[in-house]
Amino acid sequence: MADYILAIDQGTTSSRAIIFDKAGSIISTGQLEHEQIFPRAGWVEHDPAEIWRNTGEVIGQALGKANLTRHDIAAVGITNQRETAVVWDRTTGEPVYNAIVWQDTRTQAIVDRLAADGGVERFKAKVGLPLATYFSGTKIVWILENVPGAREKAEAGDLLFGTTDTWVLWNLTGGVDGGVHATDVTNASRTMFMDLETLQWDDEILAAFGVPRSMLPEIKSSSEVYGVANEHSLLRETPIAGILGDQQAATFGQAAFDAGEAKNTYGTGNFLIFNTGEEIVHSKNGLLTTVGYKLGDAPVHYALEGSIAVTGSLIQWLRDNLGLISSASEVEALAATVEDNGGAYFVPAFSGLFAPYWRPDARGALVGLTRYVNKGHIARAALEAIAFQTRDVVEAVNADAGIDLSELRVDGGATANDTLLQFQADILGVPVVRPVVAETTALGAAYAAGLAVGFWSGLDELRANWQEDRRWTPAMDEAERQRLDRNWKKAVTKTLEWVDEDVA
Predict the structure, then answer these.
(1) C-alpha torsion sign, points 78, 80, 82, 86
(2) What pTM was estimated for this model as a whole?
């Protein structure tokens, strides 16, 4: 009997393989970062071939560290950066261009063109999303319009599209030699092409975008056997049985299975997901309507999502672009050298502002500077920016849901930062709770795969696995909370209307 599940977590900055046992505990991990490619301002790319190579290597790392083989693995789950678009040749397996990353803003002109007839909410009633550079649909259009020969190949049926779950699945199951071209409902719901009610690609929307249906993967549930690993893989013959986009996977890993439950993931960006059950709820406050999960033939669960583009990547920016710190973990100590932000507020609108503002014309700003402000204040302002942006999204969730969140379950890399989580509790005015297993994204993918092959009996067994590690309770008085939030919202206004014809 195989005693473990392996999850592939293909993220924005790295690819990981994590092996879990039946209790949802981590047995071993393999991880490799991949190159972040910035050809020009606003453009963000990854090399799909590098991502696939790294995926194979991290699987080997995880198996080797635990002294396990494929015979010990009951199933494989995949989770991924959701809106990042890969287009490749089905006959050669070669990408026709680099993967265009979810943070990339080059497609704004395509967004504007599509919005000229019906505005940015032209397709929102059907797909739950506004027209924005964030989603993968316009990235496909850009490749078809800008890569020589791509349009002709696509029309001939020779090109395939996928988010990185599909790219990994296709390669893992054989690639040009019978690879499975599929995605799950959560990733499909981030393309702008999937009807939320039918869970199928919408031909009218595809025609408006000019994307051939033949490029698109088959839409499947989040928990079923899609295929098995091919003979060249260390995992050969192991079923690949779960796929969830990273934020939905984290929600699943947090055991937030029911309507009214929510989580917030602190990664490259921040993503708060609020489960609305089997009901499609259309936001009136700047949130996205998305698919939460679908287990086999069971009914689909929907969610509201608040997507924040830049949080953890702001700390990375302090490290890589400014040299203010030499590792991300140092930011907490630097922030602790001062008592407060010194009047400085950092709005990291590097890719415009996502939820709840949806302002592509915004750009980053550090405001409130005086000669008193030092690098400690800037570090603290960067951490506080993560929490302030989360408050903006929680306010929108509360307004849409009609009830206030009573606590916030959190996960992701930045939740190791106690200073951040205490400020998060303070600025929200509700407790913040971290689980024992903070790697809930990979855990959610493992859960989906394990359920499909009977490794776990059902959701009740998964709920029993969830354990609280630590809780932060608010210690700030309401007047100070309101003062800080008022100043933050004032800072946000200073970032707007920056991009125009003169400023790309």
Answers:
(1) negative
(2) 0.88
Mean pLDDT of the residues in the chain: 94
Flag whether pLDDT at 144 surpasses 60: yes
> Which is nearest to 101 in space by CA: 9, 8, 196, 10?
10
Spell 175-207 as b/e; 16+ CB within 10 A means b.
beeebbbbbbbbbbbbbbbbbbeebebbeebbe
Contact 51, 39 (CB under 8 A): no
Angle, nearest 10°, between helix axes 48-66 and 164-172? Answer: 60
Are residues 255 and 451 in contact, defined by beta-carbon separation less than 8 angstroms?
A: no
Distances (CA, A) of 156 to 143, 160, 209: 16, 11, 17
Q: In this predicted model, what pLDDT tens digit does every residue of 292-319 receive, in sequence order?
A: 999 999 999 999 999 898 898 999 999 9
What ranges in 131-175 are assigned the alpha helix state H? 136-146, 150-155, 164-172
Token pair in block for residue 103? 């943070």
Number of CB atoms found within 10 A of residue 359's CB: 16
212: helix, strand or coil: coil
Measure the CA–CA gap between 444 and 257, rounded to whole angstroms: 11
Q: Are 195 and 289 in contact (CB under 8 A)?
A: no
